[in-house]
Design a protein that fits this description.
single chain; alpha+beta; 3-stranded antiparallel β-sheet; 4 helices; 38% helix; globular
């Protein structure tokens, strides 16, 4: 741990003390990414701006969500299908990347450079970006769960 030479207090780095390490489901880029347990104001602003910019490319539609934060696919319409087609586009990915990069603390994916984020192979890119967007969205919408909270143990009261 680094300490401030002035105050002899720990210096905080980009990797938060409390974070989530997530395993990539994308075969092309196995490994992990690390996201924080909560977003800072800067991260939340970058995420909101990326979503806003991406939404400008999309039709005006509403999604219904399940309790776990995922989209309720049983209620999809033709407009929703157009949305999913757009999320596969390079334009949408390009708008999402600044928000993604602001929220991912560490990239530990094989043969992957986040500074030169790969656009191909297309399906792998779509899967990776979709997965990361889903994870950050869950984090952003999280309201009641306390990060890293230990389960209470019964007392012998």
């Amino acid at each position: 741990m680094d300490f401030s030479p002035v105050h002899n207090l720990p210096v905080l780095t980009r990797r938060a003390a409390m974070s989530k390490v997530l395993t990539s489901p994308v075969k092309r880029w196995p490994g992990t990414i690390t996201i924080p347990d909560f977003l800072t104001f800067d991260q939340a602003m970058a995420w909101e701006e990326a979503l806003s910019n991406g939404k400008k490319l999309l039709p005006e539609i509403q999604f219904e969500y399940k309790d776990d934060g995922s989209i309720d696919t049983s209620k999809l319409t033709e407009e929703h299908l157009k949305f999913f087609g757009m999320t596969h586009s390079l334009k949408y990915a390009n708008e999402a990347l600044p928000g993604i990069k602001a929220c991912v603390l560490e990239w530990n994916l094989k043969d992957f450079d986040p500074e030169n984020f790969p656009a191909t192979p297309r399906q792998s890119r779509v899967d990776l970006i979709g997965w990361i967007i889903s994870e950050i969205t869950k984090l952003y919408k999280e309201e009641n769960e306390v990060p890293n909270e230990l389960s209470p143990t019964p007392s012998n009261g």
